[in-house]
Amino acid sequence: SFTSICSPIFGMVGCLIPAWLVYKVPALHKYKGASLYLIIITGLLLCVSPFLAFS
């Protein structure tokens, strides 16, 4: 389905790339914290979920 195909894209664009930018861009370092780890976990789950659904 559409969700299982696009879920990794949503995880990368919506969670993992912004989290990576928070770590790399000095102006965004103020956003580091526990919520950033939740965003990273959510992005990883979105990327892995299609593989779990097909198994």
TrEMBL record:
UniProt membrane topology term: Multi-pass membrane protein
The protein's name in its UniProt record: Inner membrane transport YhaO domain protein
Transmembrane segments: 6-23, 35-54
Subcellular location: Cell inner membrane
Residues spanning the signal sequence: none
Domain of life according to the entry: Bacteria
Protein keywords: Cell inner membrane, Cell membrane, Membrane, Transmembrane, Transmembrane helix, Transport
Single GO BP term: amino acid transmembrane transport
This protein's GO CC annotations: plasma membrane
